[in-house]
Amino acid sequence: MKKNAILFRMVNEKHICPFGIRSLDLLKREGFQVEDNHLKSREETDAFKSMHDVKTTPQVFIDDQRIGGYDDLRTFLGMGPAVKPGLSYRPVIMIFVMALLTTIAALTAMGHSLLSMKTAEWFVAMSMVFLALQKLKDLYSFTNSFITYDLLAMKFVRYGALYPFLEAYAGLGMLAGFPPLVVAPVSLFIGTIGGISVYKAVYIDKRELKCACVGGDSKVPLGFVSLTENIIMVVAGLWMLSKVL
Fold it and tell me: Global pTM?
């Protein structure tokens, strides 16, 4: 027997509600026959909200029962929230995964063996560039988070704004094959200061903070991953110096 649902959502020239589209898609995937009603103006939407005493749209009705909006629909269908609350390492993990895949793709296209130190070097460099890009998307937001735990940025706020550019420079310099003596000191410097800062904030002061490593709006917890990132930059700097010393 076909299940039926009624959906009311905003669809007009200036606005198409994304949660309305998600609700429609979810209902169809769950096997519902959907009566899709469009609220085509602000006045029509306000009148609908007043009639049903609701504050938002979309609204879903199943078997003459008002289920509610998209999150309510997911709950009704026994699903968890679309966006899980709390901290997550997923953003930084995905950056490292994409950095690795980009490294593999680039080296494969160039005909290089993947079983070499160049793979490790390029992976570290790609990771630094991708992480710097995340920070540079909203530099002000990044620095607001960064200056709360980085020891140097606390004293010199402008260092916080400079940090992503230094990280990008080190990563791009490694990829371009710049002389180690003009790249390694930068990687060593920011990695050392960053590592000490994270260790102090997390393991000595026991502060629960969000990491600015993927931007200021990050939900990544400051801790092991952040410390590892800085240690990798230090190791990369030492590795580059070992080639010339």
Answer: 0.80
Please give the distance of CA 11 from its chain centroid, rounded to a whole number.
29
Question: How far from the centroid of its chain's Cα atoms is residue 245's Cα?
Answer: 38
How many CB atoms are located within 10 Å of the residue 14 CB?
7
Residue type, 234: V
15: left (phi over 0), alpha (psi -120 to 50) or beta: beta
Paired sense of beta strands 59-62 and 65-68, if any: antiparallel
Helix (H, G, I), strand (E, B) or coil at 11: strand
User: CB–CB of 226/213 below 8 Å?
Assistant: yes
pLDDT, one tens digit per residue, over 40-77 is: 998 999 999 999 999 999 999 998 899 999 999 999 99
* CB of 6 closer than 8 Å to CB of 60: yes
Neighbours of 168 (CB within 10 A): 18
Residue 112 φ then ψ, to 5°: -85, 150
- CA neighbor of 33 nearest in space, from 65, 56, 3: 3
Dig out the tokens for 128 from the structure. 């630094």
Q: From the CB of residue 228, how many other CB atoms can be counted at a distance below 10 Å?
A: 14
- The phi and psi torsions of 132 (rounded to 5 degrees) equal -65, -40
Q: In the structure encoding, which two tokens stand for residue 228, read together?
A: 């590892």
Q: Compute the residue count for the chain.
A: 245
CA Rg value for the chain: 25
The predicted-structure confidence for 11-29, as pLDDT tens digits, reads as follows 988 889 999 999 999 999 9
Residue 86 has pLDDT above 70, yes or no: no
How many whole angstroms separate alpha carbon 45 and alpha carbon 164?
45
Query: Distance (Å, rounded) from C-alpha 145 to C-alpha 210?
Result: 8
